[in-house]
Specification:
Radius of gyration: 19 Å
Oligomer: single chain
Number of helices: 12
Number of strands: 8
Structural class: alpha/beta
Bound molecules: zinc ion
Distance between the termini: 31 Å
Length: 303
């Protein structure tokens, strides 16, 4: 497989302590079953002051979007789920038009107001403009041209609109994942999320050498081949280790130029504290930039 390792210096991250501080601060629960992972924000911010503002923003966004009630997403029959997964279709593919688009619109409208109130000027027009009809479907079907049009009507960049859609859709996508969480994922061999189709934001390799991927949208965890790129399927990854984050690897693909932050857990180590670790290791993403590597997917923050 020819992976080679290099030490990548993570700048500001040299100051930070080992990840076990973080573990002690996160009130952990299994990502696939959890409705929403809670965090002792005050304590984490104190220990990771460099990321305090981002964590604070992330948690406030979650508070906003999770405060909107929605019609529960469909719970599919076991057979229907297995048929879909077995033929390479995601759970969302089978019911993409059955989600609560009105609730999505309310969550998005609330999020625009929240961001405008937090002084993000970019969102002032969007916070006063009605959320366009059909936006949820356009987002879920990744109709780029239409998203660009919606964004310009709202005075936003397409990237900002997509980030906000990602946040506003998360409660429903996570609920869809929960409702169908008993699916047998062993039939799924693709790099993207079996529930919602997003490419992973992070990975974890456990003590047995199995690799698990984490979805930035519905926060699902699923298994994938150890040495293949989840983006393009290329076999053989380059591995960089982080001086400031022992245990964190930056695995990159030569074929498509993307990387994935990977938590390598030893025996007895707790599992990767996703999604918060994605935000706390922003410095690693910054260190990857000069190496001309790009993230495989959006982060949980949508950037
Ligand atoms: Zn997902
Ligand atoms: Zn690749």
């Amino acid at each position: 497989m020819g992976a080679h390792a290099t030490v990548l210096h993570g700048g500001q991250w040299r100051k930070t302590r080992r990840l076990n501080i973080l573990y002690s601060l996160l009130k952990r629960s299994e990502p696939v079953k959890a409705k929403r992972q809670r965090v002792n924000l005050k304590a984490v911010k104190k220990r990771f002051p460099d990321c305090a503002a981002h964590l604070d923003l992330f948690e406030s966004i979650q508070d906003t979007v999770y405060s909107v009630k929605f019609r529960p997403p469909p719970r599919l029959g076991r057979e229907e789920v297995q048929d879909a997964l077995g033929s390479g279709r995601t759970v969302l593919d089978t019911c993409v038009d059955k989600l609560d688009t009105e609730a999505f619109g309310r969550a998005l409208g609330k999020l625009f107001k929240h961001l405008a109130d937090r002084n993000a000027r970019e969102f002032s027009r969007a916070s006063r403009t009605a959320v366009p009809e059909g936006l949820m479907a356009d987002y879920l079907h990744a109709r780029e041209k239409r998203l660009e049009r919606h964004a310009s009507q709202q005075g936003l960049s397409a990237a900002s609109l997509v980030s906000c859609c990602q946040q506003a859709a998360r409660p429903q996508l996570a609920a869809l994942r929960d409702a169908n969480g008993e699916a047998d994922l062993s039939v799924w061999h693709q790099g993207h999320c079996p529930f919602c189709g997003a490419l992973p934001a992070m990975a974890q390799v456990d003590a047995q050498g199995s690799r698990h991927l984490f979805c930035p949208n519905c926060l699902a965890q699923y298994r994938f081949a150890r040495h293949h790129c989840p983006g393009c399927g290329h076999a053989g990854l380059n591995v960089l280790t982080m001086e400031a984050w022992p245990g964190l690897l930056l695995e990159s693909c030569q074929a498509c130029g993307t990387y994935l932050k990977t938590w390598s857990a030893g025996a007895g180590d707790p599992p990767c504290p996703f999604p918060h670790l994605d935000i706390l290791t922003r410095g690693v993403d910054e260190a990857a930039e000069p190496q001309e590597l790009k993230r495989l997917s959006l982060s949980v923050m949508g950037v």
